[in-house]
Amino acid sequence: MTESGLQPWWIVARSEEVTSREPLSVDIGAQPLVLWRDAEGIARALEDRCPHRRAPLSLGCIRDDGWIQCGYHGWSYDGATGRLKQIPNMKGEQRFPPVYKAQAFAIAESGGFVRVCLDPAAAAPAPEVSTMALSGTAHVAIEQAAWIAALYDDPALLIDIRGVRFTPYLMSELREEGGLLVMERSCQWAGLHWPAPFSADFPITVLTRSDPATGRTELPLRDDQFTTLLTAVIAPVPAARGVTAVRWRAEVGRGSGLHGRLLGLGTPFAVREAIDAAALRRSKPSASTHYDDLRARLATSSTPGATAELSRTPVAA
Amino acid sequence: MLDILSRPQDQIDLQHGAAPKPATSLNAVNNWVPHDIVMRDSWFPIAHSYGIGKTPVRRAIYSQPYFVWREGGKAVAAEFHPAEARMREKSIYTDAAGRYPVMEHYGVVWGWFGNPQAADPAHLPSLPFLPPQGGLPKYMTATQRFDCSAPISLENLIDLTHADFLHADVVGDERSDSETIETFYDSETITMVRTLVNKSVAPIMKFFSGIRQPTQNVRQVIRIYLRSHCAIAYGRFEPGDDVPLFHPCTPETRDRTRMEMVMNTSNAGLLFRHIMPMAGYKVSRQDSSMTSPQSPRYMRPTARKDLHSRFDAPGQRYRLLMQDLAARQAGGDFAYRDNVSEDCSDIIGLRKELFRF
Ligand code: FES
Ligand SMILES: [Fe+2]
């Protein structure tokens, strides 16, 4: 996945989405996965393909003992190893050769996110620091790379922060900072005011800090006193058929003014399910050009594995 | 017990003394590509007799168009619609007039796909539980569609262990005292016999046949005519009824299947007789929920082998036989080495006294 050849950890689900009631089907690119929680409440990830007759395991069910059972002929698998545990009607003969298993993937859960690495032997990632209370999932009909490019060129096409209007003006252009790609964009409060092109100062900025391997982006919204009004973590993951699955979590900061208090009501953050495609094609690649350049430079200049390593490093808030 | 390196176990080889030397490797059995298989020189069910009248209807076998109608009461099938402006060449599958060989038997219209010269009623599958001249009530028939390749649909059928999960609400769960599976085959057919002792009673029989006992002994037979993709599914339930089903899987395209179903419930009680054929509508959607996502995963070769249990011996034998037949056809050999029209009553264990025509 990364240029260095190491597989990154992808945020494929929010903790709330992974249950022991029913399996969850997700994907990383063309790789379908099934997620669920076993009897101990531990999140598990297998390839969403039963090795018996290739039926999707996500159509099956989770047994009381925590194994996942295929809905077609009832074969049951253990989530930690993927090993076949039971074939119905086999009575006493329930010991199977080691090749009898489904593909298991490395999985880690922290900060309200479930992360999967396609390399089963991958070292566990550093945990996320805290769990933000607000969260959501949006599926968008656009390739992940194009989604990230649009995030840098015109975030209003993709996300919505209540009362906030993104401007085309930047406080700082995209640069590399501690292995992350960082940019700061000026924003206005919605409402009637002097138009952005003629404004001397802007009351708020949105900072974006992206992991170059996965596009996981931390997004703090700050006012001119450097008070954090809102923080969001957005994880765009390539899914099947060119769809991007975006999972996000957010929390409201300590803003005291009218606008800050308004942000505290309900859910002030959203990732759009639908994109204004006509506006998207008109938007010009500006910041995203730097994004691509920097990403390429990071990949070649870093020692092998460094880029992927970045994706395991949580961004301090 | 489980061995991915062993060939499927032969319990009994009916027609030959010993298993014929297969042309197909074991690897190919465990990662076969049924999507690539096209069977020629065979009769395929294309319509229920009652479905064909004076106006042409359009059917397809492997995407090849079949326009079917009646001329003087006789079913005919042509490559071109009578009103069609000919924009394409005639295929090799029809005679000079663009007509396919057609038969009408068992209440079904059959179209021949292959060399028209080779069409012969001797190659029509034996279905001894259906009246040769047709005439079963319409409620015992249906048309069902599956968006999967025909061999995937037949594999589904020949491994009945799936029924305990997918169709538990209709046929009962997997609990039984014992389960044995036997396979019989020749170069054109495969027959699987599944015997269950004290199996949980099928809910549908509990409710509609008034069976009071908690368990029943079950003998289920699946017989597949490889070339025509026609199957017989015959269940004998003690206590309970005899339910023989004609389950053809006509490949309209390589990955779309049409089933002109006929279930002869004439011997069952009034209620069950009507209800059981209707259960097919539910059962086929349950099957489809698995075979439809399955089928695309069998469209391209893969190095990964499917796993199997001893319950899969018939399914693996089916794969092997299909591949052997396909390999022979690829080599230009379309001859029948075994007779598919010979009465199969004994092989399927048909209680003939119940089905006299
Ligand atoms: S396909 Fe999963 S048990 Fe058969
Ligand atoms: Fe079925």
From TrEMBL, chain A:
Keywords: 2Fe-2S, Iron, Iron-sulfur, Metal-binding, Oxidoreductase. It comes from Alterirhizorhabdus solaris. GO terms for molecular function: 2 iron, 2 sulfur cluster binding; metal ion binding; oxidoreductase activity. Residues 291-317 are annotated as: Disordered. This is Rieske (2Fe-2S) protein. Residues 9-116 form the Rieske domain. The keyword Amino-acid biosynthesis does not apply. Gene3D superfamilies: Rieske [2Fe-2S] iron-sulphur domain. SUPFAM superfamilies: ISP domain. The keyword Heme does not apply.
